[in-house]
Amino acid sequence: MFENYLDRWWLQPDGEPITTTTSRLLPVRRDGVPAMLKVATEPEERRGADTMTWWDGEGAARVLAHEGDALLMERAEGPTSLEEMARSGRDDEATRIMCQVATRLHAPRMRPLPTSLVPLPEWFAALEPGAARHRGILEHAAATARHLFAEPRDIAVLHGDIHHGNILDFGSQGWLAIDPKGLLGERAFDFVNILRNPDAGIALRPGRFSRQVTIVAGATGLNRVRLLQWTLAFAGLSAAWILGDGDEPRLDLAVAELAAAELSRG
């Protein structure tokens, strides 16, 4: 899988291959510079590569080469991890960093949008049937999503999966994003994953959810109610996906309930 690109792009392997459910990765070097070779095995990774190329290093890791299923991008080697920051008393700082990176990604570019972007209504396709089957808080989430889609605003190219593991320390270049989903829709959507990460233990700490909602809204200028609505809608969608796989979405159901409770307080 890698040999063709190693030869074509003059790359030297610099670590062990990594296999995920959607791609194959290999740490490499090109002219001594650390990079990551990523070969997509699923359509969402191919869309992500298109989006990474479109961002052109502005808020995201710089793409060095892109052809077909393969993407060569700069590799993060900075020592700091947002996950570790969140676990060591710097949760608020980690959240503000992710907000800053997302804001850079959402800035308009004077070039045509990637044609592979998936609109948010299409991304949410599983929510309505999931709500009809499982009812409860998922019905509330589906109704909220319908309201949001009926009144679209602040449309931008979205990362779609901004969380502590997808914003990395690139040293002198600062914090940059990797692994986008390649979506198109309201920019508030891009902040909801911050509230359910880096893990359930942190996300569900008493008082943490409300505090991080306040921090995200303050750092981005987003309407707090709108942010909570997107959080409820996406938690319902994620729960529907997980239920469809036969698993129990404890975290997402809890986050949905937290968002609904905040909304009920006004």
Which SSEs are present, and which pair or pack?
Blueprint: H1 3-8, E1 12-13, E2 18-19, E3 23-30, E4 33-40, H2 43-55, E5 63-67, E6 70-74, H3 82-87, H4 91-106, E7 118-119, H5 120-123, H6 127-134, H7 137-150, E8 155-158, E9 167-169, E10 175-177, E11 183-186, H8 200-203, H9 208-220, H10 224-244, H11 250-265
Q: What would you say this structure looks like, in words?
A:
The structure is a single chain. By secondary structure, the chain is α+β, with helices and mostly antiparallel strands. It has two domains: 3-74, Phosphorylase Kinase, domain 1 (2-Layer Sandwich); 82-265, Aminoglycoside 3'-phosphotransferase, Chain: A, domain 2 (Alpha-Beta Complex). It is 45% helix and 17% strand. It contains eleven helices and eleven strands. Strands 1, 2, 3, 4, 5 and 6 form a six-stranded antiparallel β-sheet that branches. A three-stranded mixed β-sheet has the order 7-11-8. β9 and β10 (175-177) form a beta hairpin. α10 (224-244) packs antiparallel against α11. 40% of the residues are buried.
